Batch of 3 targets.
Target 1
Amino acid sequence: MKTARLNSLTERNLLSEEHVARTVWSLALPTMIASIVQSANSFLDRIFVGRLGAEALAAVGVGGQMVFLTMALAMAVSTGATAIVARMVGANDRAQLREAARQALGIAIVLGVLLTVLGYLLLPFLLDWYRLNERANRLAHEFLGWALLGVPGTFLLMGLSGTFRGLGDTRSPMIASIGATLAHILGDWLLIFGNLGFPNLGIQGAGIAMALSTWVGAGILWVQQWVRSERELAIPAFPIRAWWVRIMRIGLPASARTFIYSTSSVMFTGILSATAAGTAAVAALPIGLTAESIAFMPGFAFAIAASALVGQALGAKNERLAERFGWASAWQACAVMTTMAIVFFVFAEYFARLFTSDPKVIELAVAYLRINALTEPLLAFGMVLAGALQGAGDSLKAMLATFITQWVVRIPLAYLMAFWLGWDAYGAWGAMALSSGFSGLLMMYLFKRGGWKKVRV
């Protein structure tokens, strides 16, 4: 019974040469659904907290950024687990698969607890850095006082999700994501406002709901492992140094990509604020990013599919099939994201008006959407092929490509086009589009070279 899961994967024929496109789609679709659910969760959470006032929104916004930093490290465990488990599935190495899953779970628990303790110790100093007013600072303390209790749950959820994806199962993480979202929304409704006899906890209720949701999601995945003849994968092992190195060597560069994106975004926003458009350009940026996030969902989903399938094919010593999975994932993402880009281009003004009535902000948001829509197809290749490299264990190349795209190309080009060429915010939008196109071309070049086929995990 312990090998039932591996046998079921063989029956599903994930590594079939005849059903490459169908297999990619079957793995990507659940992740897309999960992404949509998570977006709805963020939207509803913001609505609930917004009823507490602007200072509560600021407090949760700051708190959310701090929690997001812990998620970036949790992603390292998840990415490493996916790459190694996928490789072991392809190689039919049950012993190493079991050890990889159990070590990932143990590492997730240790890191989750350590970061929770560290978060409480550093909380006063971190919040002082944001220089919130007195009430917002107090609310942020109250929110994070509870929300940080969910950090170990986040690590467990990410670690378990990485194992499931490596197994070729994206449906189980989707179910867990839906469960976590429902718990979050219900928790907000019950605890922020005191509905159905629950205490009216305000911002603390928002923190409890966030923490609770991560534990619910992790619990759903753990139970699924336990009841589906995979109990040996659901028992955490005490982390040993060799496995720390093995998992983090793949995962940390993937996690660093998130940090690179975050820091370059701060710099890019600073450039926008210095343009003649100034505040209007800064206000237009989140409108454009919100629209683009709809296209990022399928890109992320196909990247997850490519990661699992490329890893499994390499484990089976089928480099040709691994390459086919990578390109098939990228082309499908390109088709979906190109469709979304056309929608952005045609309905850009309508979308911008949903968020603001300021004519200047609308003008700049429309320009953002139409300029960046032009390189959305190449962005799809950049996102998905980076996922393919990570699945092969070659996450360092994906990280370096992201650094080059964001810091060597985007930031200097934005400064050049906005100020030296005098194109103001429109120049910055152009730099975004060109750097996105560059990222796609760079990732296509790296994937086509094939060095990732020789990486050992």
Target 2
Amino acid sequence: MHCAGSPGDRTMRKCLLLVCMRKGAIGEGENVTEQLSDEMDFVAIDFETANAFRGSPCAVAMVRYRAGAPTETLHTLMRPPHRHDSFDPWNMSVHGITPEDVSSAPRFVDFLPKMLEFLGSDVLVAHNAGFDVSVLRHATEASGVEWPSLRYACTLVMSRRTLDLPSYSLPWVAEELGVEVRNHHDPVDDALAAGNVLLALAERTGSSSIAGLLDSTRTSLGFVRPDGWKGSTAISERSTSGNTSKPHFPGPNESADTNHPLFGRRIVLTGRLGSMTRQEAWDALARIGGIAQPGINKSTDVLVVGPDLYQGDVLESDAMTGKMAKAARMREKGAAIEIMSEDEFVRSL
């Protein structure tokens, strides 16, 4: 599975090995859709991680598409950044990669220049891109490396805006669109499936370019750059007066599976979600029997934290929301409020 190749020339390496500055999410108004190709040109990516820390990539695959067809693949096993290279049993059970498998593989930071060279100026595409892009951000930061500059799109977000499914995980979406997933959690197969899902969504919506697909699915293009990042997110619906529509908290589905881990649990959201709007999250939660709450109180079971805030110890962050601060205070007094990332929440739906 290892793809050989030099880690890049000295100039690129020198540019990458910079001391990382503190970064945060960039607000609205950034124009990142300029110079998008009229063709379906992009690079699909999939990471697998060694442990619960996002910045622990142990494998990566990238597939280059030109005019809607895969043309070249880059893939390798890799050793995660120093101090983040332990392997959790749960992760190994998912993807089957072990410490022995990566013992002679390149370190992430040594393979990164080759990844960026392969990407070039293309749009990066992933299914649940919030996860894969956060792996890239956290791994570069853990390596003492400056964030690269890139643009990306999320097929999970697009799928939520286009399809009506009980789950929007890659296998479910692929089956609905007639896309083959040969071996889920093999990075090559998953990257190829994500790219083919994007093409199938384009066909489903009658879009001939990434820009057209973004418009058809009401999805924004995300970006990363050295001074910050912005997610590829669902664009909120607006009322005719220009104001965001009033939130609706649907009642839980009483016929849902009572064995579902979120059934009957009271859940609060904080921070901007990357894979769906708040309303879509509340609707999805209701379908599986969960109970949406507007704010933290004594009955709250779970606080779901958006990707812009879920970094490090989320309840000791300098950028805590009021809901996070209240949850921290209540936990100190013994309340059993679970803190869950958006990625964990999405995987549970």
Target 3
Amino acid sequence: MYRFPVEHVYLVDTVSSDPRAHRRALRLAGALGVPSPEAITLERSLELRHNRQASRPGTYPRRTGEFDYSRGWTVVLDTYCEGERFVDRVPRATYRDGRRQMGGEGVCRSALEFHGAFGCYHRCAYCFVDPYFLIACDLETLAERMPEYMARYPTQKLWKFDALTDTIVLEPEYGASELLVPLFAGLEDRHLLLYTKSDNVDHLLPLDHGGHTIINWSLSPRTQSREIEINAPDTYQRIAAMKKCQDAGYTVRVRVSPVVPLQGWREEFVEMADALFSAVQPDVITIDVVGWCLPEALDAAMDISRLEPEFAAEVRAGLGVSNRKAEKYLFSHELRASALRHVAATLKKRSPETPVAVCNETRAMWAALGDILQMHPSNYVCCCGPDCVPGHEMLRKQGANLPSSPSGSSG
């Protein structure tokens, strides 16, 4: 588990009613250096959550100096359930509706996702997450009810855990990987997807995954990884972690997400692509450009003058525009297309057989990049699509390029 400073560690009273959750909570608290966390009532936990949300001006990036990170993180150890009833304060599952998420303009696949926590330690400047962790400790309850969810969505083969945090940061003390990886190993046609920026992967290596766990890294060039994604491992540490997992038989995927178009990023991306393909062979890569915010938000998150001039100019031109809503697309089609084409072409030059998709992009973008992507928005494979599992027809040709699995593993 990452060691990071904490200001408060709270234990919600509902945790004590579940011995498994209580053991997990005390294990996490001990790893955080607070073996006797402060007990609070459910009402107090809801008050903390309300106060945190009320203090936030919206889900936009903030200047890294807005929060006093030296005071440490607030951690709330809670549960999904009260008795037999799921509660809403700790999200256990959300439905990603690809038909509505983009307002009909973009392309995304609908799917159900599971969650264990909200919050993150990595402190990426473009992210809205503040120094706060809300962690569900009764993971066994979620695992026991997964067959019910899967029965409701029989055509969904890939199940993502977690999109609201990076659970790998909390392992092995959290125990989500130890619980879920073997669970999916025993399912004939379902796969687990773990999404991370972390290099904290040693706990995964001995687990019996049976070829049914996919690990998806968010990867970025050197300067972005070190100076924008402040507490995250850098580019090369993430690639080394990928190699460990691929050598252990896991399927490895990469999201180049988000592309932050800093000056010099294009040259650094070429270096990154060379390092990536010299170490591992991801079975699919998805790419995306930073967005989901207003120009004011990105201006608050970082020094805009560090962006390539054309991107910086668009951010400045958008500042102060009234009645504008935060949308997926911060930059124009032309600028996004320029960045995405560079990424896709660089990747394809080094590994022509590796599928490359764009994430949450418009049909116009798919058309503009069609000569490189060689997939169609009505029929494509990506990192987290509900049918995008090993054996998918667009991934089968990739098998010849994958390294052999170690003895006892399949991947």
